[in-house]
Amino acid sequence: MTQLPLRAQLATALGRTAATLSRVTGRGDGSVIGGRVSLVLEPDLLRKLAHDRKLALVSATNGKTTTTRLITSALSELGDVATNAFGANMPAGHVSALSSAKHAPYGVLEVDEKYLPEVIDTTGAGVICLMNLSRDQMDRAGEIWLLAQKWRRALAGRNTHVIANADDPLVTWGASTAASVTWVSAGQPWKEDSWCCPQCGGPLDRKGMEYVPPGSMGSGAPSGAGENDWACRECTFRRPEPSWILDDDAVIDPRGQRWVLDIQLPGRANRANAAIALATAEVFGLPVERALPRLREVRSVAGRYTTVERDGRHARLLLAKNPAGWLEAFDVLDASLPVILSVNAQGPDGRDTSWLWDVDYRVLRGRPVFVTGERRLDLALRLDVADVPFQLANSFEQALAAQPSGKVDVIANYTAFQQIRSEFGRAV
Ligand SMILES: [Zn+2]
């Protein structure tokens, strides 16, 4: 790598000092404050730090931290990788990530969906991964459509390679102005934000869900496309042919070879993340046989899926921040175990909890359910309407103490998750 200009070097050094001070005084991991200090001194620092590196940006509503981690793990097979491992996914976090690994030839950056156009522009990243778009907190379909439109503009006319989930119509639309795209069939369990064609507003037909008149044969959808196929009924916009396919517990690569994933991270969503990571690794020249063993080494990501223990009770922590995330978390639950649900409504969670009504909780029937968090009464009302029996607890500690010894699953939204992690100390 070429040497940074003096001003950029100074900005980097002072930023790292600020980050260290923040860490030692217990104010967090310091990556955001360090990046901010650096950017004040040298506003063009991110572009300079990104220059000369092989960069991948990762964006989505859900799964970006995990996918960033999986791609980083894979690319470490090729050399040093700079990454924002702790989810500081705006430009200050990117500056911090790149300046703390100044000589790493590779970089994998998680990017907030709204900042993606700016970060594409600044870093000139050659590879961009786009996985899913759905309502988050108080967003609604119109807002994520605007977001996808901004992605389209940011990608148009650039020499960028995109790896995108072809099963998500809005992501497909957002990615399709890119010069080249690797389409991955990574699935889309949450469909509530994509019943309309992003191109023309017409209805989207989905395989197995479209109206078929009695007595007629076939559905018009192409054969062999599987349950994830979709097509607009009124214009030509339809799902592109994927070259990578997530097929239950395996990935089928572009040559038709089937690779059983066998990763440690649980659930369908993480297998989808792994499929995207393998397709991305191949763009960097890393074949599946070398990338996949690296993905299997990842056990937990920023505390997710780890277990905290107290008095013989082992609580596995699942983070879910929005309706699509809750759906994916339900998929990970062990049906034989009780579950504790914790919901807060602080700034990072969104103050309004009306999104709780978008989630179908009936899957929780038949197991012991405990409800806690600052907004436990909001969730309790929702469960009551869904006929899901539950018990209220005043705190997570109380909910955990009510369990028999052994395992319990926990689903918590952002600040509830962080509270549990900090109160229960280091994960085991
Ligand atoms: Zn259409």
TrEMBL record:
Q: Where does Zn(2+) bind?
A: 197, 200, 232, 235
Quote the SUPFAM superfamilies the UniProt record gives. Answer: MurD-like peptide ligases, catalytic domain
Pathway terms, separated by semicolons: Cell wall biogenesis; peptidoglycan biosynthesis
What are the record keywords, sorted?
ATP-binding, Cell shape, Cell wall biogenesis/degradation, Ligase, Metal-binding, Nucleotide-binding, Peptidoglycan synthesis, Zinc
Q: Which residues form the Mur ligase central domain?
A: 61-172
The protein's GO terms of the molecular function aspect are: ligase activity
Q: Which residues form the Lipid II isoglutaminyl synthase (glutamine-hydrolyzing) subunit MurT C-terminal domain?
A: 319-417
Task: Indicate yes or no for the key word Signal.
Answer: no
Query: What superkingdom heads the lineage?
Result: Bacteria
Gene3D superfamilies xref list: Mur-like, catalytic domain (3.40.1190.10)
Active site, renumbered: 352
Q: For this protein, what is the EC number?
A: 6.3.5.13
What is the reaction catalyzed? beta-D-GlcNAc-(1->4)-Mur2Ac(oyl-L-Ala-gamma-D-Glu-L-Lys-D-Ala-D-Ala)-di-trans,octa-cis-undecaprenyl diphosphate + ATP = beta-D-GlcNAc-(1->4)-Mur2Ac(oyl-L-Ala-gamma-D-O-P-Glu-L-Lys-D-Ala-D-Ala)-di-trans,octa-cis-undecaprenyl diphosphate + ADP; beta-D-GlcNAc-(1->4)-Mur2Ac(oyl-L-Ala-gamma-D-O-P-Glu-L-Lys-D-Ala-D-Ala)-di-trans,octa-cis-undecaprenyl diphosphate + NH4(+) = beta-D-GlcNAc-(1->4)-Mur2Ac(oyl-L-Ala-D-isoglutaminyl-L-Lys-D-Ala-D-Ala)-di-trans,octa-cis-undecaprenyl diphosphate + phosphate + H(+); beta-D-GlcNAc-(1->4)-Mur2Ac(oyl-L-Ala-gamma-D-Glu-L-Lys-D-Ala-D-Ala)-di-trans,octa-cis-undecaprenyl diphosphate + L-glutamine + ATP + H2O = beta-D-GlcNAc-(1->4)-Mur2Ac(oyl-L-Ala-D-isoglutaminyl-L-Lys-D-Ala-D-Ala)-di-trans,octa-cis-undecaprenyl diphosphate + L-glutamate + ADP + phosphate + H(+)
Matching Pfam families = Mur_ligase_M, MurT_C
Query: What's this protein's function?
Result: The lipid II isoglutaminyl synthase complex catalyzes the formation of alpha-D-isoglutamine in the cell wall lipid II stem peptide. The MurT subunit catalyzes the ATP-dependent amidation of D-glutamate residue of lipid II, converting it to an isoglutamine residue.
Q: Which family does it belong to?
A: Belongs to the MurCDEF family. MurT subfamily.
Quaternary structure and interacting proteins, as annotated? Forms a heterodimer with GatD.
Protein's name in the database: Lipid II isoglutaminyl synthase (glutamine-hydrolyzing) subunit MurT
Where is the organism placed in the taxonomic lineage, from the top?
Bacteria, Bacillati, Actinomycetota, Actinomycetes, Streptosporangiales
